[in-house]
Amino acid sequence: MRLGITVLDDDGGQLRALQRWLLRDPDTAGATLTLRGRNAAPGAMGPGLDLIDVVLSNAVSLGGLLVAVASWRQSRGNRPSVRVERDGVTVTVSGTDAEQIERLVRQLTAPPAAEPSNGTPAATTTPD
């Protein structure tokens, strides 16, 4: 499972701090975390860092990742907004309670909406 994590209103310093936090957190031990530009191919050099590219093995790991992101937010004085995206679905991490983390996991792991039978692409929404 591949995800992108973005720290909003960031010059890159917060993103690096979040990556360091996630690399040390036991809940994200099996994850692959790479800093990259949003439109850059993994491993390519670009003009700046926009997101953390995350590769997880399963949805259980996703829950741990979201808890770690929420904990990092709480450790920061300004509590920066953090968005997590998977396959066009974007969620905002804003708390650490189990219900919110479960809801975010469900949103990020839900099957993609089917296209209507008339060939028109299905409307997409971005849950927050």
Explain what this protein looks like in three dimensions.
The protein is α+β, with helices and mostly antiparallel strands. 32% of the residues lie in helices and 20% in strands. It contains three helices and five strands, in the order βαββαββα. It has helices at 13-24, 59-75, 98-109; strands at residues 2-7, 32-36, 51-55, 82-86, 89-93. Helix 2 packs across helix 3 (98-109). The longest helix is centred in the middle third of the chain and has 17 residues, at 59-75. It is globular.
Average pLDDT: 82
What count of helical segments does DSSP give?
Answer: 3
Radius of gyration, in Å, reads 15 Å
Number of strands: 5
**Residue runs with pLDDT of under 50 for 5 or more positions:** 122-128
Helix content: 25-40%
Oligomer: single chain
Largest sheet: 5 strands, antiparallel
Strand content: 15-25%
Biggest sheet strand order reads: 2-3-1-4-5
* Structural class category: alpha+beta
Strand-and-helix sequence, N→C?
EHEEHEEH
Describe this structure in a few short sentences.
The protein is α+β, with helices and mostly antiparallel strands and 128 residues long. It contains 3 helices and 5 strands.
Task: List the SSEs and their pairings.
Layout: E1 2-7, H1 13-24, E2 32-36, E3 51-55, H2 59-75, E4 82-86, E5 89-93, H3 98-109
Antiparallel strand pairs: 1-3, 1-4, 2-3, 4-5
Helix pairs in contact: 2-3
